[in-house]
Amino acid sequence: MNQNILRLAIPNILSNLSVPLLGMVDTALMGHLDQEVYVGAIALGSMIFNFIYWGLGFLRMGTTGMTAQAFGGKDEAGSILILGRAVLVVLGSSLLIILLQVPVAYLSFRWLIDGSEAVEELAASYFYIRVWAAPASLGLLALHGWFLGMQNARYPMWLTVFVNAANIGLSYLFVIGMDLKADGAAWGTVCAQYLGLIAGVLLFLGKHKALLVYIKRKALLEVAALRSFFVINRDIFIRSLLLVFSFAFFTAKSAETNDTLLAANQILQQLLMMTSYAVDGFAFAAESLVGRYKGSQNRAALKSAVRWIFVWGMGIGVSFALIFEMWGENLLFIFTDQPAILEEAAQYLGWVILVSVISVAAFIWDGVYIGATATRSMVMAMTVSTLGVFLPTYYFCFPTLGNHGLWLAMVAFMLSRGLMLTFFAKKEGFIS
After folding, report:
1. Residues 82, 143: contact at Cβ < 8 Å?
2. Nearest 5 degrees, angle CA 56-CA 57-CA 58?
């Protein structure tokens, strides 16, 4: 079992850690420019895309769970039809995002985000460039999910590392070499995403081209299968929107305070993302294995996978907490050399250490529930944790504790998710 877990988890960890590395590089490039507003611009611009892409994260998560169950049931036709339906959603969603880019930007910068005028102007320019990467970004989500469902973690690893390496190199070229500043980071992302999509299609054709024979219009649009596809993905969509709302709320409230605090919290969130993406390597393994064992109706193997994945995930969370405890302040210098931001971020580093451990259960359970397509319980836990825990904690604590109250709300949010999903797990048959 541990060999199966590590076979899937290690490539996912390597690829996942390259994702925050990209965010770290973008933040570091902005943090070493002559004004702190560039860090804030990347934070606000990226926040909008987090809403969009995390909201559409079902294109990866739902595809992984359903494909893994088809794989476990040895249903080749079913597995490729799941990818086909995901591609249809990619095309429709991409077109909608591009057509609605102006109202989305207006709503975001006039009503939802309250940053300084200088930061908002730079963030808007970043948004209008990066939005053209939507088809490639969503296409990669679907391909990643399908490969993981087919128990292939190597292809997503290769793609993620390739895309992020290209993004880093291109961002450096555009930001530093061509002096495009925040716009350069956006152009780097657009170019890298399309390069990644081309590479993903080539990998698919190289190994799975024979499966295309099963793609028939009647089968692709079969009503019962489409209904199941959209019900599962609807729940994941709601869960993802609530999750991204919580992080976007965190960023927006930081922006309302001042540019220095916004930059400091953005840097601290980059450290937190390192932990989350590492633990998500095992959450992705849970999606693949739990879906596979549910599809083959092997309940004993499913429970064993859940137990051992939790052991590995908690080990990762504790390890990162120890790293941040010992070297956290030194890590801050990677992102910026501006004394005001460094001093501000150092005050709240302890919260990152705590969240690194507290959040493990929520991340791992997400992978288990997605693999089993037990999405209703996951939505319920997320709804209660966001609306009943996160927001009340913030509004009660922020007036007296300030930014410490904002971080306390994040800790309460993660703790609530983990506890509620553990409570539901016995009913779902994940634990005895």
Report:
1. no
2. 90
The sign of the CA dihedral 241, 243, 248, 249 is positive
Q: CA 352, CA 421: separation in Å to the nearest integer? A: 22
d(CA 425, CA 223): 30
Give the per-residue pLDDT at 400: 95
Please state, as a whole number, how many other Cβ atoms lie within 10 Å of the Cβ of residue 388: 11
86-124 residue pLDDT tens: 999 999 999 999 999 999 888 877 776 666 777 778 888
Token pair, residue 171, equals: 């961002």
Mean pLDDT of the region 216-235: 86
Q: Which two tokens stand for residue 37?
A: 């507003």
Average pLDDT estimate for 327-344: 87
CA distance 210 to 301: 30
- The 10s digit of each residue's pLDDT in 131-147 is 999 999 999 999 999 99
What is the per-residue pLDDT for 112? 66
Tell me the DSSP string of 239-300: HHHHHHHHHHHHHHHHHHH-HHHHHHHHHHHHHHHHHHHHHHHHHHHHHHHHHHHHHTT-HH
Mean of the pLDDT values across residues 209-217? 91
The total domain count for the chain is 1
Give the pLDDT confidence of 372-397 residue by residue, as tens digits: 989 899 999 999 999 999 999 999 99
Q: Residue 362's closest CA among 320, 401, 420?
A: 420
Report the length, in residues, of the chain.
432
pTM of model > 0.90: no
Residue 149 structural domain = 2-428
Handedness of CA 426, 428, 431, 432 (dihedral sign): positive
Would you list the DSSP string of 157-210?
HHHHHHHHHHHHHHHHIIIIIS--HHHHHHHHHHHHHHHHHHHHHHHHHHHHGG
Sign of the torsion angle spanned by Cα atoms 97, 101, 106, 109:
positive
The per-residue DSSP string of 391-403 comes to HHHHHHHHHHHTH
